[in-house]
Each structure stands twice: as C-alpha cells, then as structure tokens.
Amino acid sequence: MKRRGLGIALRAGALSLALLAPTVVLAQEVTAPALGGADLLSALRSEDCSTQRNLSDRGREHACALGEAIHALGIPIGAVLASPLCRTVETAVLAFGAAQKAPAVREGGPLAPGSPGRFPALRALLSTPVAPGANTVVVGHAYPYYTLVGGKYLSEGEADVVRPRGDDFEVLARVGLKQWRDLAALPAGR
In terms of Cα–Cα distance, which of 64, 68, 62, 77 is closest to 10? Predict the structure, then answer.
C-alpha cells in the first residue's frame, strides 16, 4: 500500500497493527539467574520482570517515539493487546498508554515448532475484524509472527499494518519508526 493511502486507511480504522517490542537488553546483560526447563517456563509466566529480557533505555525511547508518531497521525487506537511478558507490556504502555495482557499473542498451540498451523490464537487475533473508527494493536514477539507470515521477521520496533478478513489477515504495509514519522509529516488528507 502506498504511503498516501496508508495514512487514510489507518485514520479510518478497522485495521490491526502487529508490533514487535523494540530493543531489549541483551541476554548477557540480564542479571536474572540461569534457569532451565520447568523453572524457566515458570519464570516467564510470572510477573517478575527480573527473570525476563527487558527493554533497554533505547527501547523505551523508541516505544515512546513510536507512540508519539502514531498519535501525531491522528490514528484512532482501540484495544491494545500485549503478550504478558514485561517487555511487550511496557512497549504497549509507553507507546499507547495502556496494555491488556493477552496470552494468545505468544501461545504456540499443540503443534510442533516449525509447523505452519502453530500460533492459532495469534492468527485468530489478527484475523478478527475490527470495527471502523479504531485500530487494534497487538504487541508481540518475532517468532510467532514470523511463523504466521511465512518467514518475514519484523525488526524490533517495526509494525505490520494488517487487514483482518475473518478467517485470515492481509499484510498491507510494514512500517518502522522513520516511516511513521514520514507519514506524520504528510498533510492530514494523505
């Protein structure tokens, strides 16, 4: 979709933004204890952010800047759904002021890793029609989304604009912070 049409479509609503949390602290910088197996799964399900990879200061700045650019565009935001992990919730709150924890954003389902049918709950979220006048934001992780879109990773802080179609979704555009800022600089009618 061309830049002009994208701004108009986003202002009209009825779309979803699939967003990957921006820069996180590198694994070697995390002071959490080394965990494995059931202990790791338990830690990742907990509210204890010290056991997880978290946003860096740069990631926080990026999330804020992303929210400011989207706000400057006058894009109406409805539900903001985030994986329950700390970095995705923090990204959503910094960018959009709120986050509803949605385990469906990262649940793999019963199929083996690499199976095309994995992440059915995320597929359902992105396929669910959104009422005109608002856009749904889904803040998640690289691998689940990569699995759904056939091997196209989002870079940290990038968003795909998707059109939900009931039983699936269509990717309309991939937009990074620079592109959001460029869109915000266009006259409102574009």
Answer: 77
Alpha-carbon distance 164 to 168, whole Å? 6
| Structure token pair of residue 132 | 């005109």
What does the DSSP 8-state code read for residue 51?
Answer: G
Look up the CATH superfamily of 3-185. Phosphoglycerate mutase-like (3.40.50.1240)
- pLDDT tens track for 92-127: 999 999 999 999 888 888 888 878 788 999 999 999
Contacts of 81 (CB under 8 A, 6+ apart): 92, 99, 100, 102, 104, 105, 125, 136, 137, 138, 139
The confidence band for 17, taking pLDDT boundaries of 50, 70 and 90, is: confident
Q: Which of 77, 98, 78 is nearest to 88 (CA)?
A: 98
Give the model's pLDDT for residue 30: 30
Domain residue limits, the chain: 3-185
Q: What pTM did the predictor assign?
A: 0.83
DSSP string, 81-132: EE-SSHHHHHHHHHHHS--EE-GGGT---SSPTT-TT--HHHHHHHHS---B
